[in-house]
Every structure is written in structure tokens, then in C-alpha cells.
Amino acid sequence: MKVVIFGASGMVGQGALRECLLDPAVDSVVTVGRSPSTASDPKLRHVVHADFGDLSPIASELAGADACFYCMGVTSAGLTEAEYTPVTHDYAVEAARVVGGTYVYVSGEGAGADSKTMWARVKGRTENELLALDRPVFVVRPGFIQPRHGITSRTRIYRYVYAWSSWLFPVLRKVAPKYVTTTDLLGRAMVALAKGAPASRVLRSDEINRVAG
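^ Epimerase, sequence as received from the core. Prediction below:
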């Protein structure tokens, strides 16, 4: 199985990449980024590309994919809707246009096209467009994500928050399981979806964890 990952250097993408490399059913992983990757594995290939709004120049590199994991994301803090939309919506739709196979879009708890919150509205609109495609599409909406196995967020404030709140995760898993998952469970669930695991088309953290097994 060949998997293409967008955003493999981010916290969620690192988790997805790790689980792809560990799973024997995945024999080829292609990551796409604006700069060279330091990750190394016999079944990993990294494609450097600058314009995520037009993936046509690298379409041949992405051809034959059995699955596409869209893990790219930016914090909405300080951004206007126009600034937040390209990574969250435009690039995701372009990836779905070019890359075949099962498509998994990483959204977030609370997303909704009718939301008054900007980030939730943009993600919700993107979800709706992707789910309307005539192909297997899944939306994962994690709430709190516990980074594991040395994985960290690239966003400084997120790193601080995750470090400060790490003691909360065991408590949250017990009292609010619908809102808590981990980077490895999320990555494992994405691989399972690519392999055809039965699931809802929109998965919250509790179903993410169930699908991960």
C-alpha cells in the first residue's frame, strides 16, 4: 500500500508517518514538503514542492497512491479568514484532486460550516466539500491530542501547552474519552481507514481510538 502524507513534519503528521513506517501493510510512503526532510527509512520518499495550490508538477510522484493523509495545519491565532483558508481548505482540496485512494482529512473537534468561530467554519466548509466527493473520504476530528514517542508540535505555544497539561491526559481519558486521543492512536486509525476498517465518515476521538484498535 502506498500512502501520501501532507504535513508530515507537524505533530499529527509525525504520528501518521510513524505508524505508516511501522505497519507492514504500508510498503511505500511519500511525504510532500517545502523543504528537505531529515526523516529516513527504506520505504520513505520525500518530495520537495513549493506551491501546494498547484500539485500538477509533482502529480507523477503522487500517482498510484492507495491513500492520502492531509495533516497540514496552521494555528488560526492572529490570522484572518483569508489568511487561514489556503492551508486549511485550498491545499486540502487540491491534494484530493491530485492524489487518489482513500482520503483522510485531519479536522478538529467543534468544526462546522455554520460555526461563528473562524477556524471551525473554514474546517467545516472543507469537510463538506471533501465528503461530497465520489470516493472514500474520512474526516477525523481529534480534540485533545497527547504527543507520544518523542513527537512534538512545531508551534511554540502548543509545545508549552502540551508540556504544561501532560498530567491532565490520564484524567481526561477517563472523564472525557470523546475528546482525547494520542498521536500514535490517531496515526494508527488513519492507517486502518486506508486499509478499509469500518467506520463513520466523521470520527471523533472516541471512534478514532476504537478504529486504532
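The chain is about 40% helix and 20% strand.
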